[in-house]
Amino acid sequence: MAPPILKLDDIFLSFGGTPLLNGANFQVEPGDRICLVGRNGSGKSTLMKMAAGLAEPQSGDIFRHPSSTIRYLHQAPDFDGYSTVQAYAEAGLGPGDDPYRVTYLLQHLGLTGEEDPSHLSGGEARRAALARVMAPEPDILLLDEPTNHLDLPTIEWLETELIRSRSALVVISHDRRFLEKVSTATVWLDRGQSRRLDRGFGEFEAWRDKVLEEEEIEQHKLGKAIEREEHWVRYGVSARRKRNMRRLGELSEMRAKHRGHQGALGQVTAQISDVRESGKLVIEAEHISKSFGDRPIVSDFSIRVHRGDCIGLVGPNGAGKTTLLKLLTDQSAPDAGTVKLGTNLEIATLDQRREDLNLNDTLAYYLTDGRGENLLVNGEQRHVTGYMKEFLFQPEQARTPIRDLSGGERARLMLARILSRPANLLILDEPTNDLDIETLDLLQEIVAGFPGTVILVSHDRDFLDRTVTSTIALADPENPDGRWIEFAGGFTDMMAQRKGAEAEKRKSEKAKASVSAQSNAGEAGKSKAKLSFKQKFALENLPKEMDKLGKEADDIEHKMADPALFARDPDGFSKLAKSLEDRRTKIAAMEEEWLTLEMLREEIEG
DSSP string spanning 553-565? Predict the structure, then answer.
């Protein structure tokens, strides 16, 4: 095992009351790919800031290897003093770092570098910050919610880039699919303490549930032991006084341990308020179009949304998802076509920019609209502090200004407000931003079991797969031209259908090309049409070459599966990864060539 290059030991931090961190331990070794998970407010970001040297514990030890470089992704980057994004990103480089890498990263993140930092959107700011911290290729890369505000193509590119990176990685994220792909170890921060699982996030939740179950069993056993000792105190036969005092002391310790046990944090428990049923047809859009200047955003799109549908809307940032959403909900008028809304609609909206929040309001004021201490939920009066508890807020937070909440707590507060209001049509624009995994589970259950209709915009692939019944996506994501298509199922279903359609299209085009070539040859004399010697040779030998390359690729994958390889030989790991990619590219090209030749042979023989 390699020595740690970063180690936090017995970290303690409290702001009064229950400690935020109480004996937390955390270490990073070369090549680690760690996801740091826990509930909102459990101290994940605080612990990561301590690792970066931006915060200090009240007690505990922090070791950073003197020669190791660390870069930390801020959730709210500071652009003061920088005239361009290029200048901001280059400021993160150290002596000897390659400035070209900044240009490379900005290009792949969809930025030119000439942008004015003061006019960046949330997504652009996150991309600029990623370029700054990734460009130096530090020994340790600390990423706090790197996928927030990023679109799917960028998230997938980031996954590949991080997997190939030589930097040790510590990441906080709510994106399950992202964590499953980039992590090989998991640190769980729970009730102030940390536990480590030397496996990726894909196995975390089953392990967590087992740990909590064993903890409950242990507490039950302790309770039974206390009952037995209390029975002995009351009714046991007197023995030597010294022995009796020892047992009384042990009983006191067991009671203190049992009383001091802080159970697992509760689950958010809530459901949408009941409302009268909407009409069967919720939205009918016919041949709608919308353009901004010469740029088409929506072109000739039609859809019928029925009660009970859950529709996901996906696409790159700037492609027009929010515009299409506003057209469908009659918040914006189309340039052409018509939109009709059904009857009895009660709409609740969660906006991705959280513009509904006045940061000076208290939690109680926001939830009750300033109407005192109570709010109406499902037709009954509820005290605001009792309702807050269902969303894991403490009663004393009722008078807390919203500005003091974390991003995840703000998202949870908005969810609490939406769920308290009657609705039969939910409009959710990036609802998963900043939510912890457990609250995401609740939102998933609410959406999946909602009796009304849901339309949501999201870049969270796992959330889409778990909730939506159909997915609206661009016909051609690489060349957006306003054409949107509805696919059955979730994100994975949509990708499979799109891949199948593209394969059929390529096959059809090749068949047409082959037929055309044969037709031209037939004009000169069909009886003479035949494969050349070179084509025959390729047709016979390409399968052998593909089989050989496939075995070589399998051998490389077997070598790369060694979990210690990256830490032992990062350059060798990178070379193997490139070699594997080269072989896969060659195999794909050979498959295309063989298919074309086989179709040509069939045409000639036919």
Answer: HHHHHHHHT-TTH
